[in-house]
Design a protein that fits this description.
Distance between the termini: 10 Å
Radius of gyration: 17 Å
Shape: globular
Largest sheet: 7 strands, parallel
Order of helices and strands: EEEEHEHEHEHEHEHH
Number of helices: 7
Strand order of the largest sheet: 1-9-8-7-6-4-5
Oligomer: single chain
Strand content: 15-25%
Number of strands: 9
């Protein structure tokens, strides 16, 4: 089953999907506090460990990454949020990123070290843009147990316009997409078409008016009577609900 939530509208409707029923949910999550992530006895109520990968153009120390690291750690009550730099961008270097497939081994090594350090804690792979694509690749290796993947601005559309869905179709790990409605790198109609084919539980949260970095324009914020911080808090609420549900009930 796949679900879609929006930061703005309120409606619930049936959405047919290939291979099964799907529920599309668009609702305003209000101003309620972000719910705590509750774990079942299988994980002994331990908090998750997050491995958070950066996008192609900025390192783990960028303002965006640092802010979302803090917000995700708080929202998910994480025991740790591990960030890192891919080799091409480490030590101040700003080389062009290689193909995502060439980043998998380094990413996997970071994830395995996190699992070893925080043994018994559920592993959540999180990524911004390119980092979310590599996170999906790591989950598909089967070399580390991943409880869920969280994609912040998944880059579905390549530079040549091709739809890059191959790795998504291989996923067996519960996956959540958080996408801006104005993100040119991930047309929502294309993503929804791909989601209907996924073999795993998945959910989409749409930031209305958001760009590839989930940022909403000032005029849209003003007309909606909200701040960027409020927009992000609503997204975090849905993220926490999804992760909590996965850890309680499994895929």
């Amino acid at each position: 089953m796949g679900r879609t939530r929006s930061s703005k509208r309120q409606r619930v409707e049936e959405a047919p999907e290939e291979g099964g029923d799907g529920l599309e949910v668009n609702r305003d999550s209000g101003e309620s506090q972000i719910p705590a992530v509750v774990h079942d006895q299988d994980v002994a109520t331990r908090s998750p460990v997050l491995v958070f990968a950066h996008g192609a153009g900025a390192p783990s120390t960028s303002e965006w990454m640092l802010r979302w690291k803090e917000m995700l750690g708080r929202a998910l009550h994480a025991v740790e949020v591990v960030t890192f730099d891919y080799p091409y961008i480490s030590k101040g270097k700003r080389a062009a990123p290689p193909k995502a497939e060439k980043l998998v081994d380094h990413h996997l090594d970071v994830a395995m070290k996190a699992v070893a350090k925080f043994s018994g804690h559920p592993l959540i792979l999180v990524g911004k843009s390119m980092g979310s694509r590599v996170s999906c690749m790591v989950a598909c290796t089967g070399k580390v147990q991943v409880s869920a993947v969280l994609c912040l601005g998944y880059p579905l559309k390549g530079m040549n316009g091709a739809i890059r869905d191959e790795i998504l179709l291989q996923l067996t790990t519960p996956t959540m997409f958080v996408q801006g409605s104005k993100d040119g790198m991930c047309p929502l109609e294309k993503l929804n078409a791909v989601r209907k084919k996924l073999k795993t539980r998945n959910e989409l949260y749409v930031v209305d008016g958001g760009d590839h970095s989930l940022k909403v324009g000032k005029q849209t914020l003003k007309s909606d009577g909200v701040t960027q911080a409020q927009v992000e808090e609503k997204a975090l609420t849905s993220i926490a609900e999804f992760i909590s549900s996965v850890l309680e009930c499994g895929p």
